[in-house]
What we know:
- By secondary structure, this protein is α+β, with helices and mostly antiparallel strands.
- Helices cover about 15% and strands about 40% of the residues.
- The chain folds into 3 domains: about 1-60; about 75-100, no CATH class; about 105-245, Sandwich (Jelly Rolls), CATH 2.60.120.
- The chain has helices at about 5-35, 70-75, 95-100; strands spanning about 35-40, 45, 55, 80, 90, 105-110, 115-120, 125, 130-135, 140, 145, 150-160, 170-175, 180-190, 190-195, 200, 205-215, 220-225, 230-235, 240-245.
- Strands 8, 10, 11, 13, 14 and 18 form a 6-stranded antiparallel β-sheet that branches.
- Strand 4 (about 80) and strand 5 (about 90) form a beta hairpin.
- The N and C termini lie far apart (about 90 Å).
Amino acid sequence: MHFNDKTSTVSMFFIYFMISIIHEIMKNIPIFLLLFSFAASAQVGIGTTNPTTTLDVNGPLRVRSTVTNNRESVAKDSILVSDSYGNIQRISSKMVVQSHLKTFIKGGFSNTTVLSLTLSSGVVKIPFNFEDFDENDEFETTSSIFTAKTSGIYAVNVQIKSNASSVATNFGVAILKNEAVIARNGFANIGINLGITSVNVTPPIRSVQTLVKLDVGDTIRFIVYTDLINIGLISNKEDSFFTIQQVR
């Protein structure tokens, strides 16, 4: 086969042009593979060659525009959140709100009879077993223990009313954090001797309140301390109760 000079020049130019194109494509292949990686399971990686989900973005994400939706149901059920590993998931708006609810609890006793308690070593747990409300579900009525779900500053208050007429050198109520007393209030039951018996003239109510810093998992409970062997508490909600409120 014979090529004249003009044909040879054109052929050589065409071959050079095709080599240049192939060269440019080959230079960009590594970048393409770096930005987009397709696995056998149709997983796509942007900025990574090892995607772990259907779409794995290794880097900032920007959405330039979205479609406006005014349906209330979408706001309730279609909120996207990102966990600590960067995984995007959908949860309801109610869960978002509940995860940041502050503590609001008021409780007392479930009945209105006199509650008789026997003391061991001068102290006894106050067995509060009723909740008027517990917005974050943190107080366990079977154990009478509050367990914090959120770190913060809490205002804690407790009041009891005794029906005991016995004289005692000390009778009080205390708040415990992680089984250590952090606040208490007590004083003697003073009696007047009437010959046959003595009458307690001391106010029957004991109360204490405090501010306390709690971390997640810290506990709060309440005790009575006295030198009496037995005491009776008035169980009416108006007389014996507790409150716990997160203030910060």
